[in-house]
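::Amino acid chain::
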Amino acid sequence: MKSSRKTVSLIAIIILSCLAMSLVDAVIRPDYAVKSVIKIILFLTLPISYARIAGGVPFRRLFAFEKKGFLKSLLLGFGVFTFILSGYFLVGPLFDFTHVTGALQKNMGVNASNFVFVALYISIVNSLLEEFFFRGFAFFTLKELAGRRFAYLFSAGAFAVYHIAIMTSWFSMGLFLLLIVSLVIAGLLFNWLNERNGNIYTSWMVHMFANLAINTIGFILFGII
């Protein structure tokens, strides 16, 4: 498959997968288990199928373990965890989070009784799935096919836009826009971290601890802790 065709196919898969998940999140709204299966198909099965057909997708190197880089990622993850929780306790009272738990229960069937399982899945499995798709598949492959700048901007933008359908009913418009900008910045940071290490362990650790912090806030909002 020629480089230009590979690039177009790759971009199409990323856009269509994000649109499909947006449809699932905003319109179909299945329970979280069904949504997770659909996401695995779109974010894991499709990239692997693309790699088998088109070739040239360096999936093996994404999981090349380096102890030094892993320890740095772990420390950075702890830093992000602390930063997010500190930010919540400092500025949280200024924003209205009352819609979050209601939206989770209404749209995905997530409630206080199953939130522990969902929180662990989101923090560990879902974060790895997103890093594989947006960084391992989108960023690293597009970097080789379409150039570094485009890969940075497109993958980070897709990562942020993907979350729009999930969060539209959660927050006020001001906080929603702030979160989207934060997600773009996070996507750019994740790309940079992975580029330095040549794998996705770095961004996965940071993403996992960020989700752990967010889910800790979820425990507070659900009244579990």
Q: What stands out?
A: The chain is about 85% helix and 0% strand. The radius of gyration is 17 Å.
